[in-house]
Amino acid sequence: MNKLNPWYITGFVEGEGCFAITISKHKTKKLGLDARLSFEIELRGDDRPILEMIKDKFECGHIYDLNYKRYGWMPHVKYHVRGMKPINEVIIPFFKRYPLCGKKSKDFGLFCKAAEIFNKKAHLTKEGIVKLEMLRKFMNKKRPFGD
User: Fold this and answer.
1) Residue 49 located in a structural domain
2) Contact (CB, 8 A) for 9 and 57
3) CATH code at position 52
4) C-beta separation of 144 from 135 below 8 A
5) What is d(CA 111, CA 19) in angstroms, rounded to the nearest whole number?
6) Is residue 1 part of a domain?
7) What single-letter DSSP state applies at residue 33?
C-alpha cells in the first residue's frame, strides 16, 4: 500500500478532519457524565482507501461504515481515534510535527488543552467538565466567523 506524505495527511485533515470533545450523560459515572476526546475523518464510502492509508500511518483507530440511505446519501466511512493513549502518543505529536495552518489549527489547540485536562484526570470533576464545555464551545462549527 502507498505511504502517504505526512503533509498530505495534514492538508487532508484540514479539510475533512474533526477534533472533538464529547460530553454525554452516563448513568454509572459519578458525575452522571462521560467526557471523551476523539479525532475523526468521515468520507464517502468510495474514498475508504484514503482512510485505510491514514490508519496505516497512525497505527491506531478504527474505520467503520455508516449508512445514510434513509437520507438519500451515499454510504460513508469514518476513521475514528479515541482513547488517551493514541491521542497523546500519536495524534497530538503528529499534528505538532506537521501543523495545521487554517482554522482547524485553532480546534487542534483547544483539543490539546482538553487533553491536558484529561491527563490530569480533571475530567472526572465538575470543574473539569465545565472547562471542557468552555473549550468545546469554541470548537468546529461553533467558532465565531472569522475567529
Assistant:
1) yes
2) yes
3) 3.10.28.10
4) no
5) 6
6) no
7) E
Question: How many domains does the chain fold into?
Answer: 1
Q: What nine digits make up the cell of 42? A: 468521515
- Amino acid (1-letter code) at residue 138: F
Longest dimension (CA), the chain: 46
Give residue 108's domain range.
6-141
Question: Which among 36, 24, 37, 22 is positioned nearest to 92, based on CA atoms?
Answer: 37
Strands of the sheet with 33-44, listed across from one edge: 17-25, 33-44, 76-82, 62-66
Q: CA-to-CA distance for 130 and 21, rounded, in angstroms?
A: 12
What integer pLDDT is reported at residue 125 of this predicted model? 86
Please report whether residue 90 resides in a domain.
Answer: yes
Structure-block grid coordinates of residue 44: 464517502
CA-nearest of 41, 37, 84 to 63 is 41
The string of pLDDT tens digits covering residues 11-54 is: 999 999 999 998 867 665 666 677 899 999 999 889 999 999 99
Cα separation of 122 and 137, whole Å? 18
In this structure, is residue 147 part of a structural domain? no
